[in-house]
From TrEMBL:
Organism of provenance: Brevundimonas lenta
Domain of life per record: Bacteria
Gene Ontology biological process: ribosomal small subunit assembly; translation
UniProt keyword list: Cytoplasm, Ribosome biogenesis
Gene transcribed to yield this protein: rimP
Protein's name in the database: Ribosome maturation factor RimP
Amino acid sequence: MKAKTAEDRQLLELIEPIAESLGLDIVRVRLMGGTQRRRLQIMAERGSDHDISVEECARLSRAVSEVFDAADPIAGEYLLEVSSPGIDRPLTRQSDFDLFEGYEARLETDRMIEGRKRFKGVIAGVDGDNIAIDLEGEEDTALIPFEWLVDAKLVLTDDLMKAGAEKRAARNDNSTETED
């Protein structure tokens, strides 16, 4: 799910080694827009703490631009956008579902499961190759095969915003300590 289309997957193959060389993990790559001005969106983070600084985004952007200038993998003009996944981030790796266990998410599958493709509930972790989710209004925990997911995203809730604020506060405390 890091890449949606065949073109996205080809770009991911070029981008991932660049990010890894900078100590970053790619969360998602999407090439959006028609034949005119397209936008290449790259979401990245440090694997160690799932964060990324503006400077790291700029470094990744410059490194990708350098490689893409030589390889020219996108026909025509495009805008390169490198960012963090944000607080209501996409969940693109199976490990994301362990990391964000206990938070609310929206999932969409590529096939019908009990008459539907969209699910909303609280992430209950990973069970083998399945994502466990406690769906709204249902007693049993649902297991959805990870490979069936086409989209998954955290839902912006008070709990998620509180966790994000705590993470920012901890980051600010650490940066203040290193400046002294």
